[in-house]
Each structure stands twice: as C-alpha cells, then as structure tokens.
C-alpha cells in the first residue's frame, strides 16, 4: 500500500465519481480504477459499491475513509515538525489569537521573540477558538491564544488569565451607572458574538442576561470584537464582552460596567500541540505568563 493509493481513495470517496476524481487528480479514469482495485485487493474487502449509475462507499469504505483522513493529517503534522527541525529555527513560528485578546501584550510578545530568534519569521493569525484547536491539532499553528473550554487529547494548555465580563454601551443613548442598573436593559437591543464561532461563549452571555432577569433582544451578531464595539459605538445596541477586550479597545463614546456579581469568567488559554516542545514555544508561554502576573493579577 502506497501513499498515492490513500490519496486516490480519498478523492474518489469525496467525489463519489471516478470521472470527477480522475479529473481532479489529473490522471485518466482506467489507471485510477486499477489503483482502487489494487487497494481493495490488498485490504481484502470492497471499499466502494459501483455500477454504471452511481458510486457509494461500503461500510468498510466509510470506516477506512475516517481512518485514512486521520493518518494523513498526522503525516502532515509530522512533516511540518520535521521541516522545523531541519530549518534549525530558521523557519516560521505561527501564533493564533482571538480578536478579544489582541493587545499590546501580544505585540510585546512578537517583539521579544523577534529579538530572541532573529532568523525566525513570526506570523500572527486571528482565528476563532474552535478553528484554532483544529489548526493546532493539524500542526498548522505552533501556539494558540484562545478561550476555553479546550478538550483535545492532542493539545496541552495553560491558563493565561481569567477574564471577567462587562456590559458595554454608548453612554449617550443608554444611561446606567452601576451593575444594579443592568436589569433596566431588558428592552434594549444587543449585539452578540456569532454563535457558530464561539458557542460556549454565546451561551455564557445568555446566562449572564438571565441572571439580571431578562432575555436579550439580539439584533446583530459578529465574529470580531472590534466590529461589535463599532456597532455599540454607533448606538445600535449594547453588548457583553470580556472586560479586558473592552479596556484594549475603548472609545470616547463608550462606557462599560464590570459584572462582578455574576461570578462568571472566561478562561484565556495558551495552547500548543503536545508534540511541540521547541524553545520558542516554552519561551513564548513563559513570557505571557509573566505578563499575567504583572498585568492581570
């Protein structure tokens, strides 16, 4: 069994058509059919049921597809790590972050790492937490700064800091002074983070509103903190965001009230693949943890 057999199989499994698969693989159909037949003969079972009208995976084929995908993802991750070893720290180091955590602290991290490793190209990518987890598992990111929860046997993580939540609003259109006034916002419009990008975070915001006795009227959703704050700034609604993300992006038109009574926090995590053990990763995490001690308490 060769690697090309697996790649050919996955393409046919995805397209469920030998014609379309052969076109995408840039080979003619008869050789592709022979390769799949060789693979089935070697395994000793049929992977596809096929006739003149349709191609479909057998139950064995469905299982094989799932396992082969995992094998190829692992192989890609190994290849990435091998390249880094061969580059001898002359390659790239890729850091993912979520928009609500970007601040001068991450800028300070890049400055520090660039001075420590002058021959490494450091890349920053704004990626939602869910997608960061996948990218870290696949070796496409070396370090992730994301919000919990994180459940992956392939990743290790450390708590950077716990962020409280705060209500943020346009102070010219909403007149509240203390946390006790938040219940007055039951008739106000709200701008929330996109549910599909951060489902746990979205549910926490609903829980916070419930604690103040109302269900929010959500009129806008966004997957970016800056966009949410811009909408709030324009008077299109209030929002609930992690406190530090507001402090890092405050506008003259905005005010916020930290919601201390709800006793809910957002865990900001530093995560990396368990197989990633480079000095860059260790130093980056330690640098940010030191910032946590001095800045976030």
TrEMBL record:
InterPro entries: LysR_HTH_N, LysR_subst-bd, WH-like_DNA-bd_sf, WH_DNA-bd_sf. The keyword tRNA processing does not apply. Gene3D superfamilies: Periplasmic binding protein-like II, Winged helix-like DNA-binding domain superfamily/Winged helix DNA-binding domain. Belongs to the LysR transcriptional regulatory family. It comes from Belliella kenyensis. It comes from the Bacteria. This is LysR family transcriptional regulator. Keywords: DNA-binding, Transcription, Transcription regulation. The keyword DNA-binding applies. Residues 1-58 form the HTH lysR-type domain.
């Amino acid at each position: 069994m060769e690697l090309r057999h697996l790649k050919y199989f996955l393409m046919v499994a995805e397209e469920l058509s030998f014609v379309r698969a052969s076109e995408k693989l840039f080979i003619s159909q008869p050789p592709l059919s022979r390769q799949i037949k060789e693979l089935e003969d070697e395994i000793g079972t049929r992977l596809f049921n096929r006739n003149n009208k349709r191609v479909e995976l057998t139950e064995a084929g469905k299982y094989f597809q799932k396992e082969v995908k995992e094998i190829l993802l692992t192989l890609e991750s190994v290849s990435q790590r091998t390249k880094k070893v061969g580059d001898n720290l002359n390659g790239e180091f890729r850091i993912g972050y979520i928009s609500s955590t970007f601040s001068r602290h991450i800028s300070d991290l890049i400055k520090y790492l660039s001075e420590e490793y002058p021959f490494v190209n450091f890349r920053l990518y704004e990626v939602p937490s869910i997608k960061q987890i996948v990218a870290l598992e696949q070796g496409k990111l070396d370090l992730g700064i994301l919000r919990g929860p994180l459940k992956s046997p392939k990743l290790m993580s450390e708590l950077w800091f716990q962020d409280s939540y705060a209500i943020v609003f346009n102070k010219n259109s909403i007149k509240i002074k203390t946390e006790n006034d938040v219940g007055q916002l039951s008739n106000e419009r709200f701008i929330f983070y996109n549910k599909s990008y951060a489902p746990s975070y979205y549910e926490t915001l609903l829980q916070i509103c419930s604690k103040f006795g109302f269900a929010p009227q959500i009129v806008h959703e966004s997957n970016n903190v800056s966009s949410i704050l811009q909408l709030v700034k324009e008077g299109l609604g209030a929002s609930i965001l992690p406190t530090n993300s507001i402090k890092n992006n405050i506008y003259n038109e905005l005010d916020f009230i930290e919601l201390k009574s709800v006793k809910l926090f957002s865990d900001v995590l530093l995560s990396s693949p368990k197989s990633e053990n480079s000095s860059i990763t260790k130093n980056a995490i330690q640098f940010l943890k030191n910032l946590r001690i001095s800045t976030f308490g």
